[in-house]
UniProtKB/TrEMBL annotation:
One of its GO terms (molecular function) is ammonium channel activity. It is a multi-pass membrane protein. Keywords: Ammonia transport, Membrane, Transmembrane, Transmembrane helix, Transport. This is Ammonium transporter. GO terms for cellular component: plasma membrane. Gene3D superfamilies: Ammonium transporter AmtB like domains. Residues 7-406 form the Ammonium transporter AmtB-like domain. It comes from Arthrobacter yangruifuii. Residues 392-438 are annotated as: Disordered. InterPro entries: Ammonium/urea_transptr, Ammonium_transpt, Ammonium_transpt_CS, NH4_transpt_AmtB-like_dom. The gene is amt. Residues 409-428 have a biased composition (Low complexity). The keyword Transport applies. PROSITE patterns: AMMONIUM_TRANSP.
Length: 531
């Protein structure tokens, strides 16, 4: 048993697990504010569902020492009797515990179907999604993993290569995303839908976690702490960095802006594209692969408008195209001098043999994942349902979770001590000597100092307050860009204040409203007619 290799694989298993909550933050930050919890839940639940199915049947179907070139047997059911596996992609001599390998591969199984939720954002019923996850993790993923990552697998025997999941993870998830999109269809209002991301800083945090976790995703796949692991780590980073730059350049040329969303998307595209190549190519080749990935994936974002499919967060352009592109480029750049277990590619003197094997593997996995995922999705759709009804799609957090992702609305802020004191004094016995309120003063103010506004109004003599979020039309148009789409916005967020006052305190209340930024033309005085 090699302690260093074991420790490295266990650390990498943790890094790959960390990618799943990272994906939840990445996708969660880009969906509308009323769907953020639902999106995150769809990404986190695979940790529960697929961890269980993997231990029960997924691992033995994929990596059983028995079985054939297509599917394993049940000799390792529930991990009751786990033999030392025939390790994939690496030379002989790997000496890590079988359970370390089980845990590491489990994390790949978990994150694979989670990737497709970005394509179907705003449409999936939670119960239907849970059933899809369980079915995919038993019927689709283990078979694909066996074909390419088990020495007996028919694609591995053919000569196809996939270092860490360009085909097994990204291509299969992308094909499943296309299949599910065909079943659930478009969001209500698409393609004229113009939803805004709720929190792009959150998206950046998620993207950073994905980049960090990708070092375990790629550098751990050799199952050894050696020079190939170091090469895979460097290749991973340089490809992500290069793809970020070319995505930004492409975005600048095509839309006029280089955006934060583009930077993170470009990095993820590069990371997905280098994944099948990471342990098989040189650093220079990884740089070229990243440069190609950023440009190609950025341009492919526009395909959804050409072909009319509603891929909400561009999973197909980033993950599917990235995984397929990287698997094809491996046929050109693979280098046996970097890793002796690899065949040589077209540019390293190996001819076109590896490239042909890669094409066969891509087509086989994409068709298999697409067909089975479509069948699973159709069966779920026609029984328990998979798509959320149109009217519910704009507020899934309340429909599915009964709560909101954010409790930051200024109108729900808790009162300060001064505000409570003023409210208490307004309800005291001596307040009964004040005249009854006979006017309602209404105004629109900025929201930045809402606590101070409330306190000042109560102290000025307001008898009751009603505050509500408001969106106010302005004559100033600003332009926002998201995924190369420009949106012209001429509304700003404000707070609508209505204060009941008597004549003695009306001027003081109006003065407070003006002090807090209310425009004179937005202040109205309405008479109160009691019942």
């Amino acid at each position: 048993m090699n302690g260093a290799d074991t420790a490295w694989v266990l650390v990498c298993a943790g890094l790959v697990l960390f990618m799943t909550p990272g994906l939840a933050l990445f996708y969660g930050g880009m969906v509308p504010v009323r769907n953020v919890l639902t999106m995150m839940m769809q990404n986190i639940i695979p940790l529960g569902i697929i961890s269980v199915t993997w231990v029960l049947v997924g691992y033995t179907l994929a990596f059983s020492n028995n079985g054939n070139s297509v599917v394993g047997e049940f000799d390792a059911f529930a991990l009751i009797d786990v033999d030392t596996p025939q390790f994939h992609t690496v030379a002989a001599g790997v000496t890590i515990p079988a359970l370390a390998f089980v845990a590491y591969q489990m994390m790949f199984a978990v994150i694979t179907p989670a990737l497709l939720t970005g394509a179907t954002a705003g449409r999936l019923k939670f119960a239907g999604w849970v059933v899809f996850l369980a079915a995919f993790s038993i019927l689709v993923y283990p078979q694909v993993a066996r074909w390419l990552w088990h020495p007996k697998g028919w694609l591995a025997q053919l000569g196809a290569q996939d270092w860490a999941g360009g085909i097994v993870v990204h291509a299969s998830a992308g094909a499943a995303a296309i299949a599910v999109l065909l079943v659930v269809g478009r969001r209500r209002g698409w393609p004229n839908l113009r939803t805004s991301p709720n929190n792009l800083p959150l998206m950046l945090v998620g993207g950073g976690i994905l980049w960090f976790g990708w070092f375990g995703f790629n550098a751990g796949d050799g199952l050894q702490a050696n020079d190939i692991a170091a090469q895979a780590l460097v290749n991973t980073h340089i490809a992500g960095a290069a793809a970020m730059l070319t995505w930004l350049v492409t975005e600048r040329i095509t839309s006029g802006h280089s955006t934060l969303v583009g930077a993170v998307s470009g990095a993820v595209a590069g990371l997905a594209t280098i994944t099948p190549c990471a342990g098989f190519v040189s650093t220079g080749a990884a740089l070229l692969i990243g440069l190609i990935a950023g440009c190609v994936c950025a341009l492919c974002v526009r395909l959804k408008h050409v072909f009319g499919y509603d891929d909400a967060l561009d999973v197909i352009a980033v993950h599917f195209v990235g995984g397929v592109l990287g698997s094809l480029l491996l046929g050109f750049f693979a280098d046996s001098s970097v890793n002796p277990v690899s065949a040589d590619g077209v540019f390293t003197g190996g001819g076109g043999g590896l490239l042909w094997h890669q094409v066969v593997a891509i087509v086989s996995v994409v068709l298999f994942s697409f067909v089975l995922s479509w069948i699973i999705a159709v069966l779920i759709s026609r029984t328990m349902g998979l798509k959320v009804p149109g009217p519910e799609q704009e507020d899934l957090d309340h429909v599915q979770q009964g709560s909101s992702g954010y409790s930051l609305s200024p109108t729900t802020t808790r009162p300060t001590a001064a505000g409570r004191a003023a409210a208490d004094s307004s309800n005291s016995a001596d307040r009964r000597d004040h005249p009854s309120p006979n006017h309602l003063v209404s105004a629109v103010v900025n929201a930045e100092r809402i606590d101070g506004l409330r306190d000042a109004l109560l102290m000025a003599g307001a008898r009751s307050l009603e505050l509500a979020d408001a969106v106010v039309y302005t004559d100033k148009v600003r332009t926002e860009t998201f995924r190369s789409e420009k949106r012209r916005i001429d509304f700003d967020d404000r707070i609508r204040v209505q204060a009941a006052v008597d004549e003695d305190h009306e001027e003081a209340v109006v003065a407070v409203l003006k002090r807090f930024g209310a425009e004179p033309e937005s202040i109205y005085r309405l008479a109160i007619t009691p019942y």
